[in-house]
């Protein structure tokens, strides 16, 4: 096949798959901020509803490392392509079934129990999704283009966010609050079936990565990849975990927490604030593109370290900007936050694979990415809500400063391993 056509197909498969993945996750994040609490956790306290809703949101993050180990096992033993198809089907199937769930008023405690089960399925599938998409891109990249190819799956994040928030915005404009709560929130979950079908169609048309094929020709795959990974590459796993914390912390504070806080404590209409977030999302994509080009011209470590340092600085002003009461200041806060996230997120697809050899690479980067997601993502909205209640809005950014410092330490102390394309 023509190399240009082959590269285009690989980049499209990486982009579309992660766009579907992040669309699925974002629609739940948005629903958690807007309707999940009242529908599935009836209680007199609005704060308790919000916390319970965010707990179901965080549940998927704890399922992700389990999925990382399971899908990583097969990704390192039988290949990237088949594993990617399976992870996308599980992720998409769980999301679709959420659309058909009964609420607490209809099914009682069974409703939140089923919701938690499907959230676990979402997280389990996502645990194997991102790592495979990143490897599909960087292990097929021409020499010197690893970071730009690695930014393709990262661009799936703002693309998925655009579709998710855009659809919620349209529903909010076209439906009354009563209709949205009654059935409108289910539409984005139903629509995911179309996106999953497109993702599967694209991925079934690609082959295995050259790096994996070469590695299998040199030596048989490990019987238990996670065992070999933890025995021989524990420092790399710890560095990788720390390296992804900052991007997760920024994103879920600038999206899930910000939406919940703005529509409750600040009194903004949900359509108005969704439009603000949609506009700020363009700066996220811009940050990823800048990071990919900059990292190929310098190094992924330098760009990721810069993003981490800026995250720590951002934490000093994020809470004050969000709680300013001025929509222009709020937009500037979110836009700058998501641009910085692009710098901390864009290089990950090229940086994490350098920490591990091909034989345990799928398991290694998936485990690091998803455990880091627990620290930076699952805890972020919950910690921010607690900090805001204890010390006011200005304290919200403390979590970002700590996350930035952790990622910077992970980058600085990470081992220097093989290039992504090397077997």
From TrEMBL:
Q: Which Pfam families match?
A: Sugar_tr
State the SUPFAM superfamilies in the record.
MFS general substrate transporter
Q: Just give the chief location class.
A: membrane
The family database entries (InterPro entries) matched by this protein are listed as: MFS_dom, MFS_sugar_transport-like, MFS_trans_sf
- A Gene Ontology term for the protein's cellular component: plasma membrane
Alphabetical UniProt keywords: Cell membrane, Membrane, Transmembrane, Transmembrane helix, Transport
Keyword Kinase in the entry? The reply is no
Report the locations given in the UniProt record: Cell membrane
Limits of the Major facilitator superfamily (MFS) profile domain: 10-421
Q: Which residues cross the membrane?
A: 54-75, 95-118, 155-175, 187-204, 236-262, 274-295, 307-332, 338-360, 367-388, 394-413
Q: What is this protein called?
A: General substrate transporter
Q: Give the species this sequence originates from.
A: Novosphingobium aromaticivorans (strain ATCC 700278 / DSM 12444 / CCUG 56034 / CIP 105152 / NBRC 16084 / F199)
């Amino acid at each position: 096949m023509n190399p240009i056509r082959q590269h285009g197909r690989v980049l499209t498969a990486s982009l579309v798959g992660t766009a579907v993945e992040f669309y699925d996750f974002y629609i739940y994040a948005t629903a958690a901020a807007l309707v999940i609490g009242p529908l599935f956790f009836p209680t007199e306290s609005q704060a308790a509803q919000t916390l319970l809703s965010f707990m179901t949101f965080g549940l998927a993050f704890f399922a992700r490392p389990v999925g990382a180990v399971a899908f990583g096992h097969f990704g390192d033993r039988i290949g990237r392509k088949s594993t990617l198809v399976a992870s996308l089907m599980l992720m998409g199937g769980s999301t679709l079934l959420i659309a058909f769930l009964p609420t607490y008023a209809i099914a009682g405690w069974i409703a939140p129990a089923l919701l938690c089960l499907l959230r676990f399925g979402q997280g389990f599938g996502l645990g194997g999704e991102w790592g495979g998409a990143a490897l599909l891109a960087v292990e097929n990249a021409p020499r010197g283009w690893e970071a730009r190819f690695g930014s393709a799956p990262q661009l799936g994040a703002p693309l998925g966010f655009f579709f998710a928030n855009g659809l919620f915005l349209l529903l909010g404009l076209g439906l009354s609050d009563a209709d949205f709560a009654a059935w409108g929130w289910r539409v984005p979950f139903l629509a995911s079936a179309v996106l999953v079908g497109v993702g599967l169609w694209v991925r079934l048309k690609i082959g295995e990565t050259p790096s994996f094929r070469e590695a299998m020709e040199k030596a048989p795959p490990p019987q238990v990849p996670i065992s070999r990974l933890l025995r021989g590459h524990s420092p790399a796993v710890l560095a990788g975990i720390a390296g992804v914390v900052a991007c997760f912390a920024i994103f879920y504070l600038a999206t899930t927490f910000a939406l919940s806080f703005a529509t409750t404590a600040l009194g903004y209409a949900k359509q108005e604030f969704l439009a603000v977030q949609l506009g700020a999302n363009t700066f996220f994509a811009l940050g990823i593109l800048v990071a990919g080009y900059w990292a190929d011209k310098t190094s992924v470590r330098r760009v990721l370290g810069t993003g981490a340092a800026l995250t720590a600085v951002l934490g000093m002003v994020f809470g004050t900007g969000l709680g300013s009461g001025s929509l222009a200041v709020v937009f500037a806060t979110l836009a700058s936050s998501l641009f910085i996230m692009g710098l901390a997120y864009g290089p990950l697809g090229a940086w994490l694979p350098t920490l591990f050899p091909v034989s345990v690479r799928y398991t290694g980067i998936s485990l690091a990415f998803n455990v880091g997601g627990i620290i930076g993502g699952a805890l972020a909205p919950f910690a921010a809500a607690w900090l805001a209640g204890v010390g006011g809005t200005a304290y919200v950014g403390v979590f970002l400063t700590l996350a930035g410092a952790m990622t910077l330490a992970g980058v600085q102390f990470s081992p220097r391993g093989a290039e992504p394309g090397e077997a």
